[in-house]
Write the structure tokens for this entry.
Amino acid sequence: MTTEHKIFSKDLIPNEKAAAFLQVEGLVKSYAPADTSVPPVFEAVNFDIQKGEFVCIIGHSGCGKSTILNILAGLDEATQGYVIMNGKEVVGPSLDRGVVFQSHALMPWMTALKNVEFGVRSRWPEKSPEEISEHAMKYLDMVGLGKAANKKPHELSGGMKQRVGIARAFAIQPQMLLLDEPFGALDALTRGTIQDELLQIVKATGQTVFMITHDVDEAILLADKVMLMSHGPRARIAEIVENTMPRERTRSTVHHDPQYYAIRNHLVDFLVNRAAPAPSTEPDSNKLNAELHQQPTVVRPGLKALSNTKISTETTPPLNLIQRSAP
Ligand SMILES: Nc1ncnc2c1ncn2[C@@H]1O[C@H](COP(=O)(O)OP(=O)(O)OP(=O)(O)O)[C@@H](O)[C@H]1O
């Protein structure tokens, strides 16, 4: 069952620019909207995601990242504002959005294969059992679990379970993948391996991804854009950091790029020094109304490092870097 409505009224889309694949407009979330003494978790949250983009969101614990992801998934409702995906307002869960949580949430009585098949059957009920099985196996193979297809979750390691969750989400071929700290519970080695796998799969499928992470290195490796959230309550998307490094990044090479440390320092500096907004006692409703639909500032700290390198070494960066990074 789909619970999405087609947007027919142009008035519902406040900005006139070409519509992005995903538009988040004026999002506010309050868990006690009737109680004015309780401030909203976040407010004035606006961002766009283009088709095929990989976006990470970083912010301190409790600022509202999971709440935003749940609203994008249609599992929670915004108090104000809306989310439009591919021209339709998101008003409930849909197989067009695949979600992977930190706790893999597999059905414990089913094998890895059956877990993946379950989603495939819901997506394409007209497929024969053989077709469903073949389709599910393809995605288990993709995450390197072909040989573990008949194992139940308790026979799998944490990393393997998370791979099943990723295979299950990809297998329904969602228009958008929503990942809530999918690797948070994994050891560093497994995490790195699955990050590389995810990069490969996303590259092969052109998947649009929104991912929560607390790990700046993970964000730099995976994301085209990193959204930085300020502290809650009244959290905002304070900045969007564009990753101007070429997309062909790998864990073993990414830190050789002259842009890497500039981007990393920028992210860490935000989290350590700038995530807390200036203290203010009374919220200014006029200011909030003015800012409700304001897009966050986009910054490209990597480009500065690139131009410094150019001056110091008198070498020209590869053309693809310059083209991709042009503001
Ligand atoms: N159902 C709920 N009822 C009331 N408050 C809630 C509810 N769910 C979340 N909150 C509050 O909303 C705020 C944001 O929670 P959320 O889980 O979205 O933050 P987060 O940024 O994802 O945190 P973390 O990084 O720790 O996962 C927190 O202060 C949390 O206590």
The radius of gyration is 21 Å.
